[in-house]
Design a protein that fits this description.
It is a single chain. By secondary structure, the chain is mainly β. It contains one helix and eleven strands, in the order E-E-E-E-E-E-E-E-E-H-E-E. The strands form two sheets. Strands 2, 4, 5, 6, 9, 10 and 11 form a seven-stranded mixed sheet that branches. A hairpin with a 6-residue loop joins strand 5 and strand 6. The longest helix has 5 residues. 34% of the residues are buried.
């Protein structure tokens, strides 16, 4: 069974940092493009935050988090991470890890698997 398990969320003060982890099992991790999404309170849909490809390890970010968040992956550990620095209250959301089998789906934000999410709360 495929499972993506997020961890590392919590409550921090504005300007603080958190490091989210996503542990994957049941898939050939190195063959999947990985992304982080979030769903903020009151929002109906999840938004793309950051992604990293399976081939070149290229990364891309939502404009509002560029320079503050860093996505990385460790294929040996079947894990993807999101380092979040200079956190703002508007970053408050449930953060989800997701996997896409093809580069095309990765770019189209069409992902095959999703984790259950981890809560990130940033106080002012």
């Amino acid at each position: 069974q495929v499972q993506l398990a997020e961890s590392g969320g919590g409550l921090v003060q504005a300007g603080g940092s958190l490091r989210l982890s996503c542990a994957a099992s049941g898939i050939s991790f190195r063959h999947y493009n990985m992304g982080w999404f979030r769903q903020a309170p009151g929002k109906e849909e999840r938004e793309f935050v950051a992604g990293v490809t399976r081939t070149s390890f290229a990364t891309n970010y939502k404009d509002s988090v560029k320079g503050r968040f860093t996505i990385s992956r460790d294929n040996a550990k079947n894990a993807v991470y999101l380092q979040m620095d200079s956190l703002k209250p508007e970053d408050t959301a449930v953060y989800y890890c997701a996997a896409a089998s093809s580069l095309e789906n990765y770019f189209k934000k069409n992902y095959d698997y999703w984790g259950q999410g981890t809560q990130v709360s940033v106080s002012s």
